[in-house]
Amino acid sequence: MDCQQYQHFDVLAEVAGSIQPWFFHVPAHKTIYETMLSFYKNGTQIDLITFCQILEDRKLLAGVGGRQFVTSLWTFVPTAANVQYYVEIVRDKFILRETIATGTHIVQAAYGAQDDEAADILADFSVKIDRIKLHAGWTNGVKPLGSDELESLVDKPDPNSLVGSRWLCRGGNCLWSGGAGYGKSTLIVQFAVHWANGLRCFGVRPVRPLKSLIIQSENDDFDVSEQYNGVLKGTQLDDEGRQTVRKNLTFVRVEAKSGNAFLAQLEKFLNLYRPDMVWIDPLFAFAGCDLMNAERTGYFLREGVFPMFVKFQCGGNIVHHIAKPPKEEKAEKASIDYQYLAFGSSEIQNAFRAVNTLQPISFAEQIYKLVFSKRGRRARAKTLDGNLTSQIYLQQSDDPTMIYWNQVAEPEKPDKKVQVKYTADEHILGFMSVAHGWKTSVLQRHVKAETGMAPATFYRMWLELQKAQKIRVNEDNEWFKV
Question: Cβ contacts of residue 260 below 8 Å, gap of 6+?
Fold first, then answer.
């Protein structure tokens, strides 16, 4: 065990969500880890002197090897950069030990069993395997929650939280939806670049620098390069910040893999890169099923993709297209209602824990609204003046060399066009003379240019003036006011 690396609160938070005390085979290691975990849960920073004193007060110091042994562990590993590697070693060894013990028990039980005990042995084996998966952090679809456990979590920090106020967590999922060509791919790159450095993006803050894996299919190498370099330029990162992005952000393009084939590839990627965040862009390319079919869509998401996020303890983000929006919204939607704009069965929106939607503003050119609809308040997004909000307004950079989203103020909606009440006497006769005539078509164009009157309105009133004998025509078809 490495005590030195766990004195950092964020690192211990990462480990606490991945391994349990009983994963350790050596009793001393288990005791040391449990003690460090108690420090973390109480929000206490760990130092060597205090740590040893606590062990001694609890009469545990001698049992773990004494002060000299603890001190040697404190400086055993010089860096926390490979903490996930060590976590996997502990997890894998625990799984193997438990599997050996379970297998041995089942073999012994089978040799001594009666004929009518086979079903009981099989049921016992199934329970034990499920328990191994559960303790190892794997997904087997079942997790018991006791009342005492739930009560103990009150007012405690969530070690699995990645972004916002438990908005995106390890094992959680988020849907990002928007129309074709809106700039969704650039938007997720911008979030990933900011979060790679632990920076806020439109007010949305990660708990620490996050490692992201972006899996996409629709953009070629030059498309991705334009998005990535545009965001780097717009973010104005220094050399150290760019180096951090290179370390924490990986792109891969996957083609011709969907359904089960994609799930197999996804598992390989997550096992290889071990990201904090994975971004899948778009759902259409990888689902391999009719997204209007609720059963097949739900199976792909709930029993295919989402368990991967739980197994590999990462936050999952999936990009999706919205259905064609109506030409004009008759009424402003509540933020929560935007989640149902995405194309396909409502099972898509229902399945995701968080849903965001990117929508153009009809009356403001090139300005979009990003709505954090489902669980949106937890994102902790902010307006330009620093107020919390569930929707922000974005505009792509007008610099042709930089593909980048800028946050802007909410555009003011223009007043409805004032309806002009036209009258024949005022708006037509007012332009006519008793001495100088007009050709009808010439007068109509003149009236439209001066007043905006539609041609249909002009000719309707023109007939009214003729019937009322307020105008006359000569042999040259020129019209005069009577």
Answer: 288, 304
Instruction: Find the angle CA(388)-CA(390)-CA(395) to the nearest 5 degrees.
Output: 95
Q: Is 305 within 8 Å of 316 (Cβ atoms)? A: yes
User: Which ranges in the chain are annotated with CATH 3.40.50.300?
Assistant: 161-408
Where b means 16+ CB within 10 Å and e means fewer, 192-222 reads bbbbbbebebbbbbbbebbbbbbbbbebeee
Question: What was the pLDDT predicted at 335?
Answer: 46
Q: Which of 155, 130, 230, 133 is nearest to 185 (CA)?
A: 230
Mean pLDDT of 376-401: 90
Contact present, 184 and 176 (Cβ < 8 Å): yes
pLDDT digits (tens, 9 = 90+) for 231-253: 999 999 999 999 999 999 999 99
- pLDDT tens digits, residue range 111-161? 877 777 777 777 777 767 766 766 555 544 566 677 887 888 888 888 899
What six digits make up the tokens of 339?
A: 């989640």
pTM value surpassing 0.90? no
Q: Tokens at residue 318, please?
A: 């999936």
Could you tell me which CATH class the domain 161-408 is placed in? alpha beta
The CATH 1.10.860.10 portion of the chain extends over 5-135
Q: Which of 386, 286, 388, 295 is nearest to 335 (CA)?
A: 388
Positive or negative, the Cα torsion across 22, 27, 33, 36?
positive
Q: In which residue are the tokens 């240019």 written?
A: 449
- On the CB side of 300, CA atoms within 13 Å amount to 25
**What average pLDDT does the structure give for the chain?**
83
- Identify whether the C-beta of residue 135 lies closer than 8 Å to the C-beta of residue 23: yes
Q: So what's the pLDDT on residue 7?
A: 43
The answer regarding whether domain 5-135 maps to CATH 3.40.50.1000 reads no
Fold of 424-481: Arc Repressor Mutant, subunit A (1.10.10)
| Alpha helix positions (H), 168-220 | 184-196
Residues of the chain by 3-state class (helix, strand, coil), percent to 5: 50, 15, 35
